[in-house]
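Collaborator request, handled under Task 6.
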Amino acid sequence: MTQANRKKLLLIGLDGAIPGFVKKFSREGRLPALTKLMNEGFFAESLPVPVCDTPTNWTTLLTGAWAGTHGVMSFWVHLPGEPLHQTHSTLNTKMCDVEHLWDVAEREGKKFIMLNWPVSWPPTTKGGIIIDGTGPGTPFWRIANSNVYATHPPEGKPRLQRGQESPLHFKPTEGPASRDSATRKWQNMPASHSIPIEATIPLKGQVVYRWSEMGWQVHGMETTSQDAIAYQLLVIDSCGKGYDKVIIAREKDAKNPVAVIEPGQWSEWIYEMFPKSALLTEESGIKGAEVEGVFRFKLVELSDDGKTCTLYRTDIWTTKGWSHPEHIAEELCREVRPFTEGMELPPGVATNRGHWDIYFEGLESQAQWYVDAAEYLSKRYDWDLLIAQIHVQDGINHAISPEVYPGYQHYNPDEAARCWELFAKSYEAVDKMVGQMVEKCADESTLVAVVSDHGAIPIIKGVRLNTALARAGLMAYKQSPNSKNLIIDWSKTEVFPRRTHIWVNRKGRDPDGIVTEDK
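Structure tokens returned to the collaborator:
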């Protein structure tokens, strides 16, 4: 069948995929699915639309409009007439000024399924199936970010921090019985060749910690104490060769654990009810006084003597709210598993400690979800367009791009080789996903397209624009009347930088405008 006679479209977006990397790993024989598509079809490079980022270019790809036309200019935009410091998130279809491909498809009687295409939420159509569509790492479907519970600090200086850290303080389980849950003895403890040790970990809420040269320091409060939920840990020596197993429970009762894991193991998916106030944002639109969350643990390491332990918890995601129609979320939770937006992004609290296995295991799990969800939905519901986007390459670009750049001031050939392998593995994971989606969802009547929104360059230096603009006399500051801080003096400020733009403080348009038309 010729390309012109194709009746369906399978469109797969790989955020941040770099054409040169695709060609490199294809030549090395590591991308069989993408190589097959390139050989049977064609491969072309294109320049992204400025601003070269996620919301701008995914919107351009599915509107066909220049950024100045559709209005989605980077992650945050300022609207003329509002105070210059005020911005709006563009991860919202209401910020787009033109029609999307799916709008036109519905008007023409076409049916579509979309999996996590950025800036496709909230839905703009009555029909179709839409899964999420906000953006990478957004708080809409999150109850908590990832957490590392550890007995020891990370080594070296972390460059990225996504998630939280909490100290693990173990103590022997022996002690006087008490009615207080914090000191109550464990019930139904299994046999242990060494005295079991225990700890309490915050699941949601309480204090957020960061490690510094002075030890664990309080970084702030994640949420109010009324939303705080804690789990109990019991560490045992089941074989007489040292501590080798962690029991995780809601209460100090080993008979009813939520997980029992050994070093290197993941728990099953754990479901927990949280008060609605525990959501990271009130904009999720989820109804009810409570919300169900889902997450997993991994016991990364546990020394024989119990003095070294690292336990990782994924983000806590909601099990509903992220689908249109609403019942699709329930179906996917039952038939596949819940959608876990951003699980393919490098969790900084883990990768900063060198635990890249956590990243790749999460990435592979997420990629498999896309395959399974696409297969389930495509077989159960009719479709003309099946559109999916996964945010893999962009995340790892941000994390390690400088390491493979010879011009980087800390460039090390051995570290560069290691990071090239990490890049290759990330492309291999999405290649496998693409191959399986094509195999399970496409037939001879399907046009298959794999696209990227932008590439990346290493970020090795930052510039403080406010300082430069102030020195040039284009910005001014004054003492705050309410604190010791400086605030912007709008009466003397001609331009204001915000995110990727510099706005002119224009007279007649902006509330405190001073720049005239002739200037």
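The cover message to the collaborator said: "Confidence is low (pLDDT under 50) at residues 175-179, 206-211. The chain has three domains: 1-80+102-139+322-455, 142-319, 465-504. Please let us know whether this matches your experimental observations."
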